[in-house]
Each structure stands twice: as C-alpha cells, then as structure tokens.
C-alpha cells in the first residue's frame, strides 16, 4: 500500500512539474525589453533611477491576466534562473515591480553591479521564450 501511494505521489509530482513547464505564457513576436537612459559601463550615484523600456507589449500589474501584457523584474548581480517555468524569486537580487511600475529608485553599494530586466506574466513566471534585456554593468561611485 505504501509503495502504491509513493508511486502515485511521484507520478503526480512529475505530472505537475510537466504541466507547470507547459503553462508558460507564450511571448508575442518582436518584443523588446531595455533600459532607458542607462548604458553598459555607466557610472551612477549610489541612489539612482532605473527606467524600464518595453516595446511590443504593455504593462499590467501582477495578478492581472491581459493579453500581451506583463510586469517588470530587475535582476541585480544575478543570472536568469535555470528553471524558467517557476515564478521569479523575490529578494534583494530579484526585485519585483508587480504594481505595473515602469521605473524604480534603487540604492547600491559602491562598485560594479550587473543589472538585467525580465518581463514576468501575471504570475511572475517568465514568458516563453524569455523576454529579457541585455545584461549591463554599472559602476556605483
């Protein structure tokens, strides 16, 4: 009985993982995500504003499912997660702008930092294929 339960549980987890991977929102063609007024290698103050640029789609708050919309996430000193079928983490390195924000004031320690934008769907899951900006480096003075 325990073996049967364990087998059913394992099959259920595999099925749930497969369905989750298939449920990513398709990305429309021709979408571009980019930084406005922030360039690779730019020197910035400790506190600075990051403006999020998006063409080919609109912005909607997290939790609102509208065609061809998403919301911004800012990755700081982080790579894209390996598993893009899961919601993006929400921590100091993965900042969520689920209110539909198109800019944010951030504060970073002096030194070099990488920044990358990722567009998430209504559930914070990256689109398929992923919609991300180029990764840039800024130097905080």
At a glance:
This protein is α+β, with helices and mostly antiparallel strands.
Assign the CATH superfamily. Immunoglobulins
Question: What value does the average pLDDT take?
Answer: 89
Q: What is CATH's topology name?
A: Immunoglobulin-like
Structural class: alpha+beta
Global Rg = 18 Å
Outline the low-pLDDT stretches: 1-20
Q: Tell me, what's the shape?
A: globular
- How many domain units? 1
Which class in CATH terms? Mainly Beta
What is the name of the CATH architecture?
Sandwich
Strand coverage percent = 35-45%
Give the SSE string.
HEEEEEEEEE
Helical stretch tally: 1
Largest sheet data: 6 strands, mixed
The helix content is 10-25%
- Give the termini distance in whole angstroms: 64 Å
Q: How many DSSP E strands? A: 9
Fold blueprint:
Blueprint lengths: L1 H21 L9 E5 L6 E2 L2 E9 L2 E2 L9 E8 L17 E4 L5 E5 L3 E10 L15 E5 L1
Parallel strand pairs: 2-9, 4-5
Antiparallel strand pairs: 1-3, 3-7, 5-6, 5-8, 8-9
Q: What does the model show?
A:
The protein is an alpha+beta fold. It has a single domain, classed as Immunoglobulins (Immunoglobulin-like). The chain has one helix and nine strands, in the order H-E-E-E-E-E-E-E-E-E. The strands form two sheets. Strands 2, 4, 5, 6, 8 and 9 form a six-stranded mixed β-sheet that branches. A three-stranded antiparallel β-sheet has the order 1-3-7, with no helix packed on it. The longest helix has 21 residues. The termini are far apart. The N terminus is likely disordered.
